[in-house]
Design a protein that fits this description.
about 725 residues; mainly beta; 4-stranded antiparallel sheet; globular; repeat; WD40 repeat domain-containing protein
Length: about 725
């Protein structure tokens, strides 16, 4: 192993040595990288942290694969190749290597992921237990409240949720012990000791609906809990006597969406954001209103307070409106909005970075944004890593550095970000800015290319011959694209797109411009696409939300025959095959069946295939076809986590289902790799598996990814294109 000698000490491994990164204990790697200066160590540290929550428990082979992928996502293909070549005892075994990948969701400021929830993290709070910074994360959907050591990123306890889901959490110090306060769906407020993770006292009752916002405040030297409910009220509880304080605060009508406390003129105040767009301020000691901010926008669902140059301010974010800073003493806005009305902020928190007050916002688009509250300007670029909306955010100080802890929607992750200024990693290849929904292949200019669509509203054509990601063409449809297919139309490589409208659009793959008129005939959204040959004519097939499949002649743009009807759920997958000399379509539907159709007569062939349990994934290609030793087969991925191969001639399963995935299968594809027919499956469990269709054996080790697999395809040259989260990666078998 490459090494260097530390002054006055024994030889130590070079932290950027690929073998050291792959085989050393994670704690040793992080320690060495943290104390090594220079851009190479800074890059290696960012690469190592990007998926440390996944590869930390993996063996050397799994860690090597993820590190090579993340190095490519950070734009260093040389480091990626060196990591992939690190010897870990697997000899000459064949493996998939990364040709390139996008890095839209990697960020050098990311510190660690807190992995434990299986559903959306709806609330997060921070505090200190026995001198160590902790985070409390809550998911009402998976009914768990977890406590984390922020220095190590490890879970240190779980709070019992009781008989009702907890929707919001806050922390405070009660008689010298740090406690968590939670608001429940049944209207109760609960308290736990964070050192023992046990409940304290009895539930506090009085609200008649969900308590969706909680905070704490110190009044007369005693800790109080403040709770806001959908019943339109705010209540204050003395946690020393366990009694309500004063009258219920009601103010104007409307549910309480957000809640915070502040100090104004030396006395604590309660600040509540209401559904009607107002922000109300009360004196909790007297219950008297102190002010009203009336123009914050409909539904103030995010709110935080801070001190800016000795003056109390409140930062508000509302539904379909801006994020603004208000002076609590005057009720007037301070400066210009921090963000415009087109970018929705779900959550807000405040903190201090190098003695400057900042606001941190969790956004609908999955980004986390930071603003300087003195200037109103952004602090650095948005933080990227969550694959869906950021629902909650809190700040803390860990090791003298201010961090933000954020909770995501789809991914169920809480993430920790270092907000202190730092040098960025240059050359990160950016791609989509939303979830990748579909992947296809085409060959503009005779060169292989991948086509990807995303929730960001674009379709990108990526040249696979490039040494790094480069979108050769960007297509901008008017609506979200959920299905793609590559074709040749009018002698040109083309891309077919469909989604939330009732037409199929055709685009020139080289220029990104429309190619002729759309294919019309569906009466609702189109969910799946395929291209095939019928009697020497190239045809397009589209499965609709209404359960029908329509077929067009791609040369004339005319419908062929009548719609294929028989499914009673939307058709989420369609493919074609040759069966006994005739072209057939294979369709998968939300009615849990797979059907075969004679495309000449437009009639179904026999009864549906019903071997899959649960829904056939509608938003990814989970039915694919192939020829295996002269026999047509269909590969079907199901929500039951299995992949089943069917012989289309006998209509019988081929062998037992593949059961290696642990979550629903969201994408399948077939193709030829090194002359052998293969199938590929991608799952929400963040893995891709490839196997030989002739003998059923795996082709290489399972491939781990940092995000759920949304779509994939095998190109004609055998390269594998995978869409995971916002990212696209291209792999080849060596």
């Amino acid at each position: 192993m490459t090494g260097h000698r530390l002054p006055g000490g024994p030889q130590a491994p070079l932290p950027t040595d690929p073998l050291f990164l792959v085989t050393a204990a994670p704690e040793q790697v992080r320690e060495q990288l943290a104390r090594t200066p220079g851009p190479a160590a800074r890059l290696a540290d960012a690469v190592y942290r990007a998926s440390a929550h996944l590869h930390g428990q993996a063996g050397p082979q799994g860690r090597r694969q993820l590190l090579a992928l993340d190095a490519a996502r950070f734009g260093d293909l040389g480091l990626s190749a060196r990591i992939a070549a690190a010897p870990v005892g697997d000899g000459a075994r064949r493996a998939w290597t990364v040709a390139w990948a996008t890095g839209s969701t990697v960020d050098h400021r990311f510190r660690q992921a807190l992995i434990g929830h299986t559903e959306r993290v709806c609330s997060v709070a921070t505090g200190a237990v026995e001198g160590r910074p902790v985070a409390v994360t809550c998911s009402s959907d998976d009914r768990t409240i977890l406590v984390w050591d922020l220095a190590t990123g490890r879970p240190v306890g779980e709070l019992p949720m009781g008989d009702s889901e907890v929707r919001a959490v806050a922390t405070g110090v009660l008689r010298g012990r740090t406690v968590a306060v939670g608001g429940s769906r049944n209207g109760a407020v609960r308290v736990w000791d964070l050192a023992t993770c046990q409940p304290v006292g009895r539930p506090l009752t009085g609200h008649t609906e969900v308590v969706g916002a909680v905070a704490t405040a110190v009044l007369d030297g005693r800790l109080h809990a403040v709770s806001g409910s959908r019943d339109g009220t705010v209540r204050i509880w003395d946690l020393t006597t366990w009694q309500p304080v004063g009258e219920t605060l009601t103010g104007d009508n409307g549910p309480v969406e957000s809640l915070a406390t502040a100090v104004m003129a030396g006395r604590p105040v309660v600040v509540a954001g209401k559904w009607d767009g107002t922000v109300q301020v009360w004196d909790p000691a007297t219950g008297q209103p102190l002010g009203l901010l009336p123009d914050c926008g409909e539904g103030v669902w995010a709110l935080a307070t801070a001190q800016v140059d000795g003056r109390p301010v409140v930062v508000t974010g509302s539904r379909h409106a801006t994020v603004r800073v208000w002076d609590l003493a005057t009720g007037r806005p301070v400066g210009e909005p921090l963000i415009g009305p087109d970018e929705t902020v779900y959550a807000l928190a405040t903190g201090a970075v190098q003695d400057r007050p900042v606001a941190v916002g969790g956004c609908l688009d999955g980004t986390v944004r930071v603003w300087d509250l003195r200037t109103g300007r952004p602090v650095g670029a948005p933080l990227t890593g969550h694959v869906d909306g950021v629902w909650t955010v809190a700040t803390a100080v860990v090791g003298g550095r201010t961090v933000a802890v954020t909770g995501g929607n789809e991914d169920g992750e809480a993430r920790v970000w270092d907000l202190s200024p730092s040098l960025p990693v240059a050359g990160v290849p950016r791609g989509h800015t939303g979830e990748v929904r579909a992947v296809a292949s085409t060959e503009p200019g005779g060169l292989p290319a991948a086509v990807t669509s995303s929730r960001d509203g674009t379709v990108r054509v990526w040249g696979l011959a490039a040494g790094r990601p480069r979108a050769e063409a960007v297509i901008s449809p008017s609506r979200s694209v959920e299905a793609l297919a590559g074709a040749v139309v009018d002698g040109r490589p083309a891309v077919l797109t469909a989604g939330w409208e009732d037409v199929v659009r055709v685009w020139d793959a080289a220029t990104g411009q429309p190619l002729g008129e759309p294919l019309v005939g569906h009466t609702g959204p189109v969910r799946s696409l395929a291209v095939g040959t019928l009697g020497g004519t190239r045809v397009a097939l589209a499965g609709g939300e209404d359960g029908s499949v329509r077929v067009w002649d791609l040369a004339t743009r005319r419908l062929i025959g009548q719609p294929l009807t028989g499914h009673y759920g939307q058709v989420g997958s369609v493919a074609t095959a040759e069966l006994e000399g005739r072209t057939v379509a294979v369709t998968g539907s939300w009615d849990t069946t797979v059907r075969l159709w004679d495309l000449v007569s437009g009639t179904p062939l026999g009864s549906p295939l019903t071997g899959t349990i649960g829904l056939v994934r509608a938003m990814a290609r989970t039915v694919a076809t192939a020829q295996v030793e002269g026999r047509p087969v269909a590969v079907v991925g199901g929500w039951d986590t299995t992949v089943q191969v069917w012989d289309l001639a006998t209509r019988q399963p081929v062998g037992a289902p593949h059961t290696a995935h642990t979550d629903r299968v969201q994408a399948v594809a077939t193709g030829v790799v090194n002359g052998r027919p293969v199938a590929v499956s991608g799952s929400r469990d963040r893995t891709v598996r490839v196997w030989d269709l002739t003998d059923g054996r795996p082709l290489g080790s399972p491939l781990a990814f940092p995000g759920p697999i949304g779509a994939l395809t095998l190109c004609q040259d055998g390269r594998l294109v995978v869409g995971f989260g916002w990212e696209v990666a291209v792999l080849a078998l060596r």
